[in-house]
From TrEMBL:
Biological source species: Candidatus Infernicultor aquiphilus
Protein name per UniProt: Formate acetyltransferase
Recorded coiled-coil stretches: none
Residues modified to Glycine radical: 774
InterPro entries: Gly_radical, GRE, PFL_dom
GO molecular function terms noted in the UniProt entry: lyase activity
Entry GO terms, CC: cytosol
Domain Glycine radical, residue spans: 667-800
Amino acid sequence: MALEEILDVERLKEYLDLIVKRNAEKQNLIGWVLAKDIQRRKLLEIGDKYSPAMTQGILLESVCEKIPIFIESGQIFAGTEEDAFSASYALINPAFHIESFQGYNDEMAFYDDVKPGDKMSDIEVTKEMIKNNRIFWSRHPSIAKIREIYNDTENQTREAVYFVERVTGHTIPGFEEALEKGLEGIIIELKQNKKKFPAKSDYFDSIIKALQSTITLANRYSKLAGQKSEQEGNPLRKKELQWIAKTCHKVPYKGAENLYEALQSYILLWQVMNLEQLPNPYAFSVGNLDRIMQPYYKRTKISKKLAVQLIRHFLAFFEVGDRDWAISQNIMVGGSEVKGNDLSNDMTYIILESYHQFNRPQPNFSVKMHPHTPFKFYQAISKFMFNFGHSSPSFLNDVAVFSALKKKGVAEEDLKDYAIAGCQEPLIKGKETGNTTNSWLNLAKVLEISLNEGYSLITGEKLGPSYEELGLEENPFTSFTETKKVFYRYLDYFIEKMIKAANNCTEALSLLPVPFASFFMGGGETGIDMRDCNSGLGTKYNASGCLIHGLGTTADSLTVIKYLFNPDSQVKFSLHDLITALKVNFEGFKELQNIIQQVPKYGNNIDYADEEAVELVKIVSEKINRQKNTFDKNFAADWSSPSTNLLYGYWTGATPDGRKARESLSFGLDPSPEMATNGLLTRILSQSKLNYEIMTGGSAVAMSINPEGVKGMNLEQKAQYLKDIIGAIFDYSLEGKGQGLGYVYFNVFSSKQLLDVAEHPEKYPYPVIVRIHGQYGDARKLSPDILKKDIIPRLDPGSVSF
């Protein structure tokens, strides 16, 4: 029977309305607790008789055998992500408040999200279950090691000088082989590898165990769909359930032969990958979905309209109950070969149309751009991104990203396969574990500490060494050059502390092997787990990331200090006066504040200010890129700040640029709000001076488009407008070579519009999607701190808006 005879386009649209409504009612996610309890009971049964990798494989098998499963009304694919995530997350969580946030240091905090009494199937989450699991898992060696790391760095991480974490998720699995040949063929090959490499036999067995878990789960879904079809009275729904049963019996055990089967197979693989790393494996990303699914679309004799609805249901899989924020799953389309040839295809435009019709906060959407991006690609995006409250994609500049990846050591043949893991971190799909959020660095806080002999202006605590302990003179600020040397000495001190703690986090994570995910990252060839720190590389590429905060704030602060030292400035205030003013948050220093306001700032295409940002990016990137992780591979400098600029600013005292204590830091590579006053094009010229090649971990630039500017335009005019904007930002003019900025996202709002959403969310019946770095959020549900103190202030029309 043909797929068109079973799945009706209009019925599938109605199903999506059901799914969205049902998700909104799921406010207490408990599947992960049941999964952890299944794992706990299994561990008590088997003890330590198996290797760590085989133990993890057995635990995954146990979860896939016993976790409650469901196929709800409206679902045309079997599978869910709900069992992998807890109900809350900091920063974008509607309940987030800057003042009360204490970081991510409590590894057991997600147990606070669970409400006893909730049921899943016939299993109830009890107080005893929560207590038993909290106690049991808190004793795991991995958790104990993490707790020790945070205890050692407590005062520095609490005040956000830097932060470190063990990174789950944050990879892009290469599922193509499994989609094409099925797990049956893969398992046969793995058994042959066991014979060739007997020393790795146990690890290959753990991979086989993990992959077979997926088959177990698929067969359970097949059986459930069959049972439900027998009970179903509606003949149309009965056929759909029978189709699900038939498909899950086939894939992913066998290879997929059409688009529907490929999507179903992908969903099941994804679900198991999440279950292996629960709870909360953030930022698993799909990569170029258009390239992955194009072969199966070509084999499938269905209309484009039906293909769009299939993709919309696929996108719906990535929604997790009512938690429509902060999971950072990224889907991409578009892009080019290294030589510049466009790689878009039929599925590219089907997926773009799906996003047009599917305005939801998850999953995030990114597009790859290049000088030869077709005009119809701009048209497809323009159909939705200028509409009020609709999602807009992140834009990646292939030319700049290729350059940074080559600098990092990526082979030319792999460049086209880069994709975004999480917010904006470029990794090679199926071949790279980037450990992208392993460390976070606050430049403005380091500057604060360096000007105050190691002490915090927020708490008065000693966070770093004294000048004497660093081998500096008692008064080291004899010139601007010497002052910068002091800053960089403190930066070196904290980078050393941060890298040591970050690597310890990586070692803690290595105690939890991931044989399933590792297979799809090259582990089937190497026989080495992607997290294994002692046996060599399990993936082709490996790095660790450092997200660097406060470029604009710190660069402007250095410019002000330079100005005070310049005899031509004829200023009566000294650096000593400025430091005194910082300690009292500028109270009583109005005249000095007025002078600071007149000093040129980064973002206005004034070399006097921009050169400090250029130098800061160069020196800090090189310092980070030289650091080594536990695999003896380099760290990657990532100039972004996913709303952490707000939190890190809260823990940073007054800064020399005139910013008051606890105010937000600048975002990503952006100028500080209201500092770039000469218009957006001059800001772009300032940002184009930065070296994007050495930003090997990525970068972030936020801009906005004034919705008034596109009023009355037809689709072709909007597309041309978007093309002109992208051309200016990425240097795609006739003379340009694409060596402009690397990444940009847009919010198409005015401040007035978003403020009204924040204050009157009840007026808006549909999602109002805003960009928060590489993530989406529904403005009606976001934390007021994030919306009013970070996003809205950065919609400054003088510096960010076209």
